[in-house]
Amino acid sequence: MNICYLCDQSIVPTITWENFFHLPIKQTLCEDCKDKLPLLISPFCRRCGRKQEAETLCTDCAKWESHPDYEDVLKWNRAVFTYSPFMQDFITKWKFRGDYIVIDALFSYLLSAFRHAFDGMSHATLVPIPLTKERQHQRAFNQADVLAKQIEKRTNHAVMPVLSRPSVTSSKQSKKSRKERMETANPFSLDQPLQTPAILVDDIYTTGMTIHHAAKTLKDGGCPEVYSFTLIR
Amino acid sequence: MPNYPQLLAGKQLLLDELPLTEAEISTLQETNQLQFKEAISKKTFHYQCKRCGNTKQHLFATIPCARCNQTHHYCRNCITTGRVLFCETLSVWIGQAPDWPHQEQPCHWEGTLTKAQRQAAEKLQAVVRAANQEILCWAVCGAGKTEMLFPAITTAIHEQMRICLATPRADVVRELYPRLKQAFPHTEIEALYGGTEDATGIGQLVIATTHQLIRYSEAFDVMIIDEIDAFPYHHDKTLHYFAHKAAKKDAANIYLTATPRPKERRKIEMNKLPAVFVPIRFHGHPLPVPKLMLEWNLRRKLQNAQLPKKLKRYVETRTIYRQLLIFVSTINLLEPVASCCRVFFPKLETVYAEDPDRKEKVEAFRAKEYDLLITTTILERGVTFPSIDVVILDAGHTVFDEAALVQIAGRAGRSPKDPTGDVLFIHQGKTEAMVQAIRQINQMNKKGRE
Description:
The complex is a heterodimer of chains A (233) and B (450). With 233 residues, chain A is of the alpha/beta class. Chain A has nine helices and six strands. In chain A, strands 1-6-5-2 form a four-stranded parallel β-sheet. In chain A, strands 3-4 form a two-stranded antiparallel ribbon. In chain A, helix 9 links the parallel strand 5 (198-204) and strand 6 (226-232). Chain B has 450 residues and is an alpha/beta fold. In chain B, the strands form five sheets. A seven-stranded parallel β-sheet of chain B has the order 10-11-9-12-13-8-14. Chain B is globular. The interface between A and B is medium-sized, with 14 and 15 residues.
């Protein structure tokens, strides 16, 4: 029996010519949930990839661009989905509740969005945003790692976990306000400098603080260009 | 030092859930009071989650675990109450049994039971005393089931037993908790449901949704299961497993219901399940008998937001003032029905399960702030409005099975001040469920007169 990973309802397969001739492909997402996925399509902010009316710079990015520490640490970010209540439920289920397998349902979307955004950049290295040891133990997996490894498996990009996150600053970003996030110290340290362009991978870009901290760490270590790719923006 | 037996006995907890420090855990382990057992068992290719009992292999998934650096299974069936990984363990208390305080007179409830209630209560009390017995209490809607339990609970507390009152829904737990606290002020009571604030971990009397029993194993001497015929308990085998696992092997089991399913009724008829009937409501009046009304093309009319003629005539001829509760079969009928009812009821609300304002709307209706509430089946049981008439639109729909229809009819006439009320089944073709529901109500009324 096939069960939708996102809503736990059983999937009733419709017969098409494709699966009439083929062996059935295991379905992991029902049609209702497919319709609810908020795919991020243009126009969006040319820098952070946020959904908006025109392909201009959004107000948040304007702030980043004029900030003395962060003005050109990040080239741009691209994301697969916008942040909707449906995606919020998904994140709760996957990350906070720890249902590791549910991300399988979204891998095809992840890959097509990645290929579309980073076409012809196969020399760039994938760098997942790390977790602290404690958090990783509690969760038993690193969500950014899972995304990066899946992209590595299906493209020519290599994963290099060159960043680490020492345990001192360990409170969850999602429990903080924007202001609090902006004021936190950079939690990342560089294990090994990177000479190739890098694509940071994470699950969510919210205020962009985490991504910018990580990008700055890489940049300061000599990385020529830093991009980022997140599941949700 | 906390009272470890009270805190830990009868519980099955993951390491993260244990309310202990690492030092405490190792001391308890060394002194042979606390043990850990595997959380997921494996027999060749067959896995079982030891917490929720899941054996369905498609409800296990694999995870490359960052804790033990191995790829192994975890259980997806009970993941909403915390993830169980293959490399994890569950705690088992093997120390002293908890020692509940002795109370000569634990019950401080000052009301009195009616004759019918008293007879049933005595039988339940006898079951608690005897232990290792079960009984089904078949009491009509509005019979006063909670009060009927008080003597049995009193006996159990007096005998220093641990009691669990499990119900299918959190609303009911929230409603019961203050009532029981008032009746048993010196007993440690806790209320468990998702997001509860009244969990102490040391309750002698535990009021819980059935889902919460997942963390208990052989804990309770008395297990009372409310509304055994209700969703989700009736449908979900896992919940039966939880309830069974949480009770001690020789526990007294009490089942409560107003509308037993055919399976239970068969068992009663075959004398395999002892039962006690309470065919009369606490105020002594019979149950309102539903009236059937045929309306042509009802479903089409509802979809097109046309007011059904029968409903229109009924609303126009109503003489006594009562609030009106209308049940519809599906969420997407709420809006069309609301729009055509606005003519008569300018102030109305609709409510459904995922409605964010559900609690507020229901409370406002109870406070008589508006006259008409249109609802899906979520209000079919467990809620009491003092003085209402009830209408089901499209009573022939499959969501209205016999039990649901009897329960809905039981919403009317709950108050001793206004012990009657109209119950209308508007349909476009009589179904077996409607006929059986009316028969069941008539039967109970007949029994109540005897």
